[in-house]
């Protein structure tokens, strides 16, 4: 079922560093690419999202970079903080109500 | 708003027993989704409803799984009979309108353990 491939599975970053998580998709019909953040014991929550008509979207310390030709997109977390430690999921959707998630990346930011 | 409400939060049962998970979506949302999360397979879409009507159940693992949405404020996911491989966290999510124009709101999940 997985149509979105995410890497790495886990990531350890020092406080203040840059965290980068990558995703690749197969289906060119996807037209909405969100990132979700999940803390232990909680459900995923929308962090930031992008559409394929733009190459980059920035919200605070979080940036999505999108490469339509390569069918890849990535999440960059600048100045990573211990509070950013969570599992991050990329996702893709198309048409009506068809959201597919990547396998997730467990991010640990060390103080 | 209280958000998406799921119950029970934790369920431990024995193989062969029936399990019913419940979900109350956010008021006014017209789409509801059931996901299953495991370490091996990540987040899998099981089924989704639009205006209480099942749209796609191709992700439901097998006939042991069934889902209903009798009204706009309630949905159930039933497993009968349950098996150890069904152990996972089951999430319900709701959205307003098309998911690819908006946001999925997830509940806190129901952790199922089948012994």
Task: Please provide a written account of the structure.
The complex is a heterodimer of chains A (111) and B (115). With 111 residues, chain A is an all-beta fold. Chain A is built from no helices and 11 strands. The model of chain A has no long low-confidence stretch (mean pLDDT 93). Chain B is mostly beta strands and 115 residues long. Chain B is built from no helices and 11 strands. Chain B has strands at residues 5-7, 10-13, 19-24, 31-38, 42-50, 53-56, 65-71, 74-79, 88-95, 105-106, 110-114. The radius of gyration of chain B is 13 Å and the shape is globular. The chains are: A mainly beta (111), B mainly beta (115). Chain A binds chain B through residues 1-2, 31-32, 34, 36, 41-46, 49, 89, 93-104, and chain B through 4, 31, 33, 35, 41-45, 48, 50, 55-56, 59, 91, 93, 95, 98-101, 103-104, 106-109.
